[in-house]
Amino acid sequence: MTVKKSLVLVLTLVVVLTLAACGGNKNGNNASSNESPAASADNGAAEATGKLADIKKAGKIVLGTSAEYAPYEFHKNIDGKDTIVGFDIEIAKEIAKDLGVDLEIKDMDFGNLLAELKLGKIDFVIAGMTPDAERAKAVDFSKIYYEAKQGVLVRAEDNAKFNTMADLEGKAIGVQMGSTQEKIAQGIKGAKLKSLGKTTDLVLELKSKKVDALIAELPVAQGYANTNSDLALTAISPEYENSGSAVAVNKGEAGLLAEIQKTLDHLIADKKIDQWVSEMTAVSEQ
């Protein structure tokens, strides 16, 4: 009987230890399961950091632009109220809509846009900006959303004098400060550059004969020629290796840039940008 009792006791202990081990394994599995959602939550939190998270938390995205560059962005009196419009503005509205936030627009000189972006005073830039190598050192760009040729604007009375790029040599040329057009003008032999922050001011310089010509993107130059009988668009078409416009965000804001690119992709696929260019060109000429 003593042997039998001992055997029963041993078997009982084996069963207890086995059940305890199973219970331990079960608890271990639960612990592992509990860690997984926590890890997922941590990953989700990581995805929500950066400028994109700040924008969604604030419920608004702040656009930096230079609103005197029709049809890209410009001021227009609508229902008695000064309003910033343009096809770049329509793009910005669509980006805000896709992010589920409001759009705030900050208007400033073109040359200040990237500095304000770096300081965090604006969240992104849309201003007919060309993503050249120099700018790309400071900020990240989307893919090109609109390609435009360059144009040369002169006084109508002088139009016959300007037929080729050589005719611009040695002339006083107005360009927007910090722009692609400034770089083009810097390559013209003997050209005397007048760089200002606003195209509207440059047009006044042209009309008052302080400069001989202006270089601007073709839709802009065409718009001024169409609405000013004393100005004319020449046949000259300056070339620049980096053309087209892109959206700028601060370096490292991959999440925000990816969301912006999604919006641009569907707008390009749906040909909405081409539609807005036509519509806003017409609005700028009214």
UniProtKB/TrEMBL annotation:
Family: Belongs to the bacterial solute-binding protein 3 family.
Main subcellular location: other
SUPFAM superfamilies: Periplasmic binding protein-like II
Domain called Solute-binding protein family 3/N-terminal: residue spans: 60-280
Lineage, broadest ranks: Bacteria, Bacillati, Bacillota, Bacilli, Bacillales
Name assigned to this protein: Polar amino acid transport system substrate-binding protein
UniProt organism field: Paenibacillus catalpae
Keyword Kinase: no
InterPro entries the UniProt entry points to: SBP_3_CS, Solute-binding_3/MltF_N
